[in-house]
Amino acid sequence: MDLGALFGNFNNFLDFTVGGLVIGAIYALVALGYTMVYGVLQLINFAHSEVFMYGTFAVAWTFVLLHGTGDASWSLGRAVPILLVALVAAMLMSAAIALLVERFAYRPLINKNAPKLIALISAIGASFALAEAMGLRDRFAKWFGLDDNLANYVAPNKARDVYSNPVSIQPHGLFHIGGYSVTDVDLVVVVAALVMMFALDIFVRRTKFGRGIRAVAQDPEAAALMGVNSTRVVQVTFLVGGLMAGAAATLYMMKIGSTRQNAGFLLGVKAFTAAVMGGIGNLRGALLGGLLLGVMENWGSAVFGSEWKDVVAFVLLVLILLVRPSGLLGEALGKARA
Questions:
Q1: Regarding beta strands 258-259 and 173-177, do their DSSP bridges make them parallel or antiparallel, or are they unpaired?
Q2: How far apart are the C-alpha atoms of 290 and 285, rounded to whole Å?
Q3: Distance from C-alpha of 197 to C-alpha of 318, rounded to nearest angstrom
Q4: For residues 287 and 192, what is the distance between their CA atoms, to the nearest angstrom?
């Protein structure tokens, strides 16, 4: 254990902290989807990781469509016009996948009052099905005779390999915090995550749909008696979670630049961890949990080595749940104050 790697130099400490906040912001946005669904249905949507994954492919495919397949290295400023289109495409793609999950993996079971365990298994099945469908995208294109036209998108015979964005975004240093150079990409990721989280918080607390979401989360039967359409509320919940996942996918591709058919698995598990740490069903808890998890991961990799990064994240989860089982904030969505 090399504590000096983290604490021996204050600049190193700041490096790992700021870097952790950036990746933690992405965890937080994905965690919002888990929190929204759990807050309303008291169910974990394990297919949400694939909702995020489809958004990452939408970003890469948008760049292929508007730029081409030639490798290029652009500044963030030059990439902004295509990034905005990619953001819309990713949010629409992820929202569509989220609604499909709700329609086929959840709604039939909810209508039949199936046990929650059955719905959980259905979500896990949907997760694997969506991941495998993306891994077989070259086969689907071939079956429909579109393999030549879609060659740039389906990557024939390489559908399970890493799929890189043809345009890599080169970060530009803006200012220093200790020895860490904060880049324009870092700043956009963190600020965008904060803005979207607070916008979602206002949506849930101040709008008509938000009041419906809180009503169903708190007491579904009473909400139904008051005329709240619970089916519509569940649809909106999945839709909003999908939109947040699409935004996270865009930020992820800005920062990481590549994806694959199982890219959502580990990141999804960590986002779920962040949601539980902050208090599952708590929007602000999802943000806190994501940022904390990102920072603690980086600190752990500095002290124990990068191969222990994931171990540190999940040990942290266990420790927090032992001390505070409801999470750090612990307030459920249905109990949120108006």
A1: unpaired
A2: 8
A3: 25
A4: 12
φ, ψ of residue 73 to 5 degrees: the values are -125, 115
Question: Residue by residue, what is the 3-state secondary structure of 43-105?
Answer: CCCCCHHHHHHHHHHHHHHHHHHHHCCCCEEEEHHHHHHHHHHHHHHHHHHHHHHHHHHHHHH
- CA 179, distance to chain mean position in Å, is 29
Q: Where are the alpha helices (DSSP H) in 136-183?
A: 137-143, 151-154
Dig out the tokens for 161 from the structure.
């390999």
User: What does the pLDDT look like over 38-89, one tens digit per residue?
Assistant: 888 888 899 999 999 999 999 999 999 999 888 999 999 999 999 999 999 9
Model-level pTM?
0.91
- The candidate with the shortest Cα–Cα distance to 268, out of 127, 163, 90, 130, is 127
Give the 3-state secondary structure of residue 234: helix
CATH class of the structural domain 4-335: mainly alpha
Q: Which two tokens stand for residue 276?
A: 């539980």
Residue 230: count of CB within 10 angstroms of its CB: 17
Q: 175 by DSSP, 3-state: which?
A: strand
User: CA angle 12-17-19, nearest 5°?
Assistant: 95
Is 287 within 8 Å of 20 (Cβ atoms)?
Answer: no
Q: 176-197, pLDDT tens digit by residue?
A: 877 778 899 999 999 999 999 8
Number of Cβ within 10 Å of residue 173's Cβ equals 11
**C-alpha span between 295 and 27 (Å, rounded):** 11
Q: How far apart are the first and last CA of the chain?
A: 47
DSSP conformation class of 307: G
- CA 48 vs CA 17, 59, 241: distances in Å: 27, 17, 8
pLDDT the model gives residue 3 = 53
The helix/strand/coil state of 172 is coil
d(CA 240, CA 235): 9
The rounded radius of gyration (Å) of the Cα atoms in the chain is 20
